[in-house]
């Protein structure tokens, strides 16, 4: 059965209303209007580093935050291809909003899978909350000492058993969207003789959570990716939703279902993040095309768009983005059909798409010169935003080493 099968009730609910709502929210007219609306204020959010609460209110009005929730919970049960269309439209307008939405989509995808280990009532609670109230969720994993857990090591965040639940203490970095999150999926370890590692589900409004407003980065400035400190935060016993021995979290450990779930999640992550950074490059391309038609130096007596050298480099940008579209569309189609790409292929997709997106924006800057670097125009912001594609897991060195080892082993 394809891996897109999601959490279902014993008796299936009618899907027609959910499908109709999904189709209405995904029309080109709706998505184009979202791009234009978000682009109009993106510069303000970037300059202020403020969180785009209004953008998420708009997304909720269109039913797009709960897009991936199953139909019987009020969502649309959307496919990866459909989620990709939403992320592309949002990211062309305001990419920090798209990043927070992507992280929520990835969490929804994971917990709606039938093989997910969370208690069923908590899965349903989180998914209903997103549909009814636009509740956002993200994973909190990176720490000052550990760095990214993708490279191994035990987290410093600790869960201690109490008489009626758990007490959480720890310090997390880069908690994307924390100013708008309702649920925190916190990566931590237990204080046990043989520690288990996994996820504690923490409500954002739980006492003892402190946000350190430290996010002041080059790009995606509106994402609110601040630090979070947990100081004796109390959660119920069942909110330790997925704890395992550390070795059981390895990509190839566990059952066949665990391995499939990991590959599926990896595929969704790289397609949606790749779509986000590709969309930033397309926004840069759109600005450049307008500039080249409008800019007519006196020495030339015609728009820059008439120069063969300019046309060649615009064609280079078009080629880069065309390849991105083919790769991302193919990966989404294959994943939705249950033919999930392996980890090496997913890593190469992420590396290729983000590298080409960055290259496309760099070419746009080269063609526009000082105009492109001016803060009066959005191109310099697109450049800062697209560079953030390099920092997401899996990072380039890990991707290329894995691909190199696979090629050498095949030989």
CATH topology of the largest domain: Butyryl-CoA Dehydrogenase, subunit A, domain 3
Low-confidence stretches: 1-5, 8-14
The fraction of residues in strands falls at: 5-15%
Q: Average pLDDT, to the nearest integer?
A: 93
Radius of gyration: 22 Å
Order of helices and strands: HHHHHHEEEEEEEEHHHHHH
Main sheet, how many strands, which sense, barrel? 8 strands, mixed
Structural class: alpha+beta
Outline the structure in words.
With 411 residues, the chain is α+β, with helices and mostly antiparallel strands. The protein is 50% helix and 14% strand. A hairpin with a 6-residue loop joins strand 4 and strand 5. Helix 7 packs antiparallel against helix 8 and helix 7 packs antiparallel against helix 11. The longest helix is centred in the last third of the chain and has 39 residues. The protein is globular and about 80 Å long.
